[in-house]
What we know:
CATH architecture: Alpha-Beta Barrel
Number of helices: 15
Shape: globular
Radius of gyration: 20 Å
Order of helices and strands: HHHEHEHHEHEHEHEHEHEHEHHH
Helix content: 40-55%
Amino acid sequence: MIADSARLQSEALGSSLGKSQAYALMAECDTRDLVNIAGRLRERTRPEKIVTYSRKVFINLVNLCRDSCSYCTYKKDPGEAMLSLMNPAQVLAIAEAGSKLHCTEALFVTGERPEQKYGEASDWLQSLGHSTTVEYIAEMSELVLQRTGLLPHTNAGSMTKKEMSLLKETNVSLGVMLESSSERLMGKGMPHEDAPSKNPRVRMKTLESAGELRIPMTTGILVGIGETPEELVDSLYAIKEIHQKHGHIQEVIMQNFAPKADTGMALAVPPSQDYFLRAVALARIVLHDMNIQVPPNLTPQVYGRYLDAGINDWGGISPVTIDHVNPEFPWPEISTVKSVTERSGRKLRARLPIYPEFVKGGFITSERLKHAVSLLADQSGLVREDYAND
């Protein structure tokens, strides 16, 4: 058994770990050893010891949604107090506030195709001169880019190739969370039973189409919503295989499920700290040199330990807006994140909503976006330190 464990650990440090070995690592490897392997891999692929984050504003454009996930409080219904149907003036006001505080990312988040379920959403879009949410996002991305210089990044759920082509004109990157590749979670009584867009085949089609369009993509796993350890491994490999084909997945978010009041999973047991730590470490081992993020606001007391488990990014942090998806978890102060990062012997740097290797990798074809990026980035592709620290 000891020999088998040593062999598994040796294989994990290689670049061609098979899925069966990954299953075995998750099942058999001691957590300390798993974290050690992940940390060694991160140091090997990122010897510069930089950990990044994106300084952003969160633009909650419309939070009506055709889907109903058992763990979600982001979705609102017509008439609710926290319903968001933002007009251009409201969007611009948030972006301008972010610009004054040297944010570089305008994160547009919406519910999944609300106009297909709610007359209120359809009427709201029609009043703004649009028939779909994506059309309106395109207009608002244009407005923010022109008036503030913030770089748009959109997370609007599953999208068609045509829709992503439209957003590519003004967005330096897009995002869609895979959450899980397990179709079992679509079954009766499961988290995605009433969320057809969370069908993993739909989500992976979006990621594939983005790859064909050469759009840098953010995706990720929601850990602890009822998946088995084997399904977690399968999800990581699903992402890895798409990225190996197209080379366009710029980051993978490892997000821990946290039960929320007034949801179908309010009484569900969240993943243990040990299970989530193992999941994060395994992500580094499976995904090897890809960018891996853990949002610090969702594990406020212990997020520093994920640096040891191989992550290299903290995701978006806003000095202006709340996390509208997880409003009960406030962002940490950037100065605090900097201290936590530095205590691990690493340096915190601000990045754009497009990672440096994608800035330099020919993914931006629009001259206008190239110019907007050049005003904010240094030669490494990260945010100029004189701007980020001003």
